[in-house]
Design goal:
The chain folds into two domains: about 90 residues, ATPase, nucleotide binding domain (Nucleotidyltransferase, domain 5, 2-Layer Sandwich); about 140 residues, ATPase, nucleotide binding domain (Nucleotidyltransferase, domain 5, 2-Layer Sandwich), CATH 3.30.420. The chain is built from 14 helices and ten strands. A five-stranded mixed sheet has the order 3-2-1-4-5. Strands 8-7-6-9-10 form a five-stranded mixed sheet, sandwiched between helices. One of its GO terms (molecular function) is kinase activity.
Length: about 300
């Protein structure tokens, strides 16, 4: 009896700080290899991101004949903004002679977090966004960047904290957050704090959220207010997306990102606020790397064929 060849699926999560690529088999489901590489944000540096991506893929495909690669699924940070998904897909297809699909890293997380089922995904890290999928249709709420949105993110928390300090200063008062923030920013007055905040990059400013979280743990009432109001704003975006779903609405919401993973107050406020409007929602954390999403890709493609 002739033995069928093994088919391998390759999933790649290209994030802003690093790339994770994984090779999987499906019968049985088994992780064959996992490789980590450099940054993969095509908006910040397209050529470097593609170089890092191919470096990871070279290692994953080295021992696999192209005929046994069933799919390369790549989720890339910033790909929707850059508008270069087709270019990346063509480059990878030509290099590895395998079926290649390129989507955003958020959609990759949505696919992985819900195991290919319909529902929503909330990401809150340095930035934030709410994604949803129902019957092959994608929905998005928020995620409009640190200037216009990103509610519930680390940057949003930092910005709200400094704005609270400024409001108190304008009222001739001193906020509970003034001294800790000035110390963290290594400045001596509020005006200098504003100047430094504008001069620093987004990632550095977002790190101030860690200070606010620590102060909240110490029962600083203003720090608690900042975290709660930020989480409530993000929760409202979840409710907005849910209201856009058609009947029957999916009930699962996956949670991802450093803020939701490490800040219990933000996470609990988010889930409690959403449950006040939609008590039937079930939340779950993403516990595997999103490269694992390649296992579930067939569910999405099958739905598209049948729709």
């Amino acid at each position: 009896m002739r033995r069928s060849k093994m088919t391998y699926l390759i999933g790649v999560d290209c994030g802003g700080t690093h790339i994770v690529g994984q090779t999987w088999t499906t019968a049985p489901e088994h992780l064959v290899q996992s490789v980590t590489g450099g940054p993969g944000n095509v908006v910040l540096d397209y050529s470097a991101a593609v170089t890092n991506l191919t470096t990871v893929l070279d290692q994953l495909t080295a021992a696999i004949p192209a005929s046994q690669i069933g799919l390369i699924l790549i989720g890339i940070a910033g790909i929707e903004t850059a508008g270069r998904a087709d270019q990346v897909q063509k480059t990878i297809t030509q290099r590895y002679h395998a079926n290649t699909q390129v989507i955003s890293d958020a959609k990759l997380a949505l696919l992985n977090g819900l195991a290919g089922a319909d529902g929503a995904l909330v990401i809150a890290g340095t930035g934030s966004v709410v994604y949803g999928r129902q019957a092959g249709k994608f929905l998005r709420v928020g995620g409009w960047g640190y200037v216009l949105g990103d509610e519930g993110s680390a940057y949003d928390i930092s910005k709200r904290a400094l704005k609270l300090v400024l409001t108190q200063t304008d009222n001739g008062q001193t906020s509970q957050l003034t001294a800790p923030l000035l110390a963290q920013l290594k400045v001596t007055d509020v005006a200098a704090a504003v100047q430094k905040f504008y001069a620093q990059d987004r990632q550095t400013n977002a790190q101030l959220a860690q200070l606010i979280a620590k102060l909240a743990e110490q029962q600083n009432s203003e720090a608690i207010t900042v975290l709660v109001t930020s989480a409530q704003a993000l929760a409202q975006q979840v409710v907005t997306l849910y209201q856009r779903f058609a009947e029957s609405r999916p009930q699962r919401v996956a949670l991802s990102g450093s803020v939701l993973k490490h800040n219990r107050l933000v996470r609990d406020t988010l889930t409690t606020t959403v449950h006040q409007s939609i008590p039937t929602i079930a939340f779950n954390d993403i516990t595997t790397n999103n490269a694992h999403a390649v296992i579930y890709w067939h569910r999405w493609t099958q739905e598209e064929i049948n729709s």
